[in-house]
């Protein structure tokens, strides 16, 4: 079709991959629109590492598709972002959060655990998303929880005045801002003092080695000292073993999350039963 005297390679693997992606996009669009119950929220607890106190939960999206089975968020979130479906996904997650948080609406005004939500950087500047967030924030506050938005560090490389302004506005209404996967973005540390943020989440790559590693410890220690100086909280991600937890405690890391502390789980009675009495 494209003329004589040339040849083209047909890469069967590539074509299969595109087909599979296309099928996933169509399935994702249909499910988000018409079968939202395929999406559920898993909540992973966050703890104070020094005292063991429960600090809140991170919300992680789960998609169980009848055709595709369980699809990892690493796969479908990127597709939702690329195909303009990310707000539809957020709307579904926020509805679940409202339902779940309201079911654990407690009366203690001095206790407000965090509910941390992952946000794609492209949503920050989106008016429809901003209004979803403000509505969610009102519901969460009314139940004595605190909304926190997690934005991945590497996505913030294109930091604009608009983003800084939006973070500032959100903080004015009591929303906390966290930088996720900190340490993977190769970004300049100098931007930290310009950013209105409350928390850094150290990526789990810094905990990878099972045995004590001086270099990793020194990096974590440097992040902690810097964050302390800037009055920013630090949370270590991916704590799997007691040894890792102890290392972080010794280094002075305040908060943590990981399979070794608690796995992501549905908002059932067992999760809430594991929490300290109020
Ligand atoms: P993330 O925000 O860094 O979330 C933490 C991921 O690490 C989760 O994977 C969690 O299950 C996993 N994890 C927690 N503790 C451990 C541990 O001790 N060891 C190991 N190996 N892994 C641990 P998950 O649920 O598969 O989510 C992957 C990513 O997908 C998330 O990474 C986040 O970037 C994205 N994601 C998930 N839900 C949403 C969402 O609702 N919206 C957006 N925009 N992104 C989401
Ligand atoms: Ca996160
Ligand atoms: Ca992370
Ligand atoms: Ca991650």
From TrEMBL:
Domain EAL, first and last residues per copy: 21-278
Lineage top rank: taxon: Bacteria
Name of the protein in question: EAL domain-containing protein
Source organism (scientific name): Reinekea marina
High-level lineage: Bacteria, Pseudomonadati, Pseudomonadota, Gammaproteobacteria, Oceanospirillales
Residues of the full protein shown: 273 to 550 of 550
